[in-house]
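REQUEST ID: PR-0412
SUBMITTED BY: lab tech R.K.
PRIORITY: routine
TASK: structure prediction, single protein chain
INPUT:
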Amino acid sequence: MEDVVVGLDIGSTKTCAVIGFLNENGLVEIAGVGVAPSRGLKNGVIINIDNTQAAIAKAIEDAELMAGCEIAACYVAITGSHIKGENSPGVVAVSGRNRSISAGEIRRVIQAAQAIVIPADREIMHVLSREFAVDDQRGIKDPIGMTGVRLEAEVHIVTGSRSAIINLTKSVNASGIHCQDIVFSPLAAAEAVLSAEEMELGVAVVDIGGGTTDIAVFSDGGVAYTSVLPVGGRHVTNDISIGLSTPAESAEMIKKKHGLSLVSFVDASETVEVPSVGDRAPRRIMRMELARIIEPRMFEIMEMIERELLVSGKKDFLAAGVVLTGGGAMLEGTVECAERVFRLPVRIGRAKNITGMKDIVSSPQYANAVGLVKYGIKTRQYREAKGGTKKQSGGLKMKMKKWFQDYL
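STATUS: complete
OUTPUT:
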């Protein structure tokens, strides 16, 4: 299967590999899925390469067995509090024939916009064009062919720690898989769960992972703001472990099976069995007690997200609301909890326009990996349309990425 694309989401709690391809009907068909526990990351950053490599190898192996094929390369999602995003403008004079704007001017103005000073220990991961202006006319998405004297571009630049990127790539390559490219997690999730209409109207994607919560705000079809919060589902698990005096593994199991984000959702008669530490027998508690532990942490996470939406300056323009993805979005009552804090419409993000193993990957915890597959297919189509065959460098060189655009 030469046309398969692989998305690899290496999280703080799990590593997920998804294999897919574009079928004859133009839909992304999911052929294989593999999941393995992650024990080599903390808050999205690798702290043990050997453990990370082992999780990657296991997830890839399971996905290969399901798909019935061997893979050699993958697209990888990255997160972590080291990732920063900022908006940057660029301006150039139009020098084309008859002052007509060509692809060359587009490249020049985006290069001008990305000419920012960054520390030596950081590198540019994404340069995402938001909009262009020709002379005094603003809000232009594709200025090619227009006539003008002055061309401006507004781009969103995402940077990350060079060492974190290198360690991530090294872990993937050590598993015998070539890292084709690295993509910021919420951008991958957006590719899977958002529609073009939502991005035009204004929408925020919030990926609640195990160790981090990633945010990407879209406005007028482009990325307007990105952020990473150092809090996620693992913090909820820790609260349960401490509050109920139970091992972390048991707390995670209890959270997934019985957890909910709002106390008001609990039936007062429900009980939960809680394993004890050591040789003591398990005990039963009221489910209400579990909810009282989870609710404050979930409201805290939502309030932190709310502050980031306010900082973005776009909260009042999110007509399409907020879309939640990631394992942390799967707790019962999370949508209602988020709506109370954001005062915006909220929904759970599930992968759109896919076939094959749709029932498995429709869960929000697979949004990043499925989005990476879609991103890889779009990237391949773009290269083929341009007649290019050059392979990507795996994110270790400064680059401009095609993202929701038809040009670089």
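NOTES: The longest helix spans residues 287-312.
REVIEWED BY: pending
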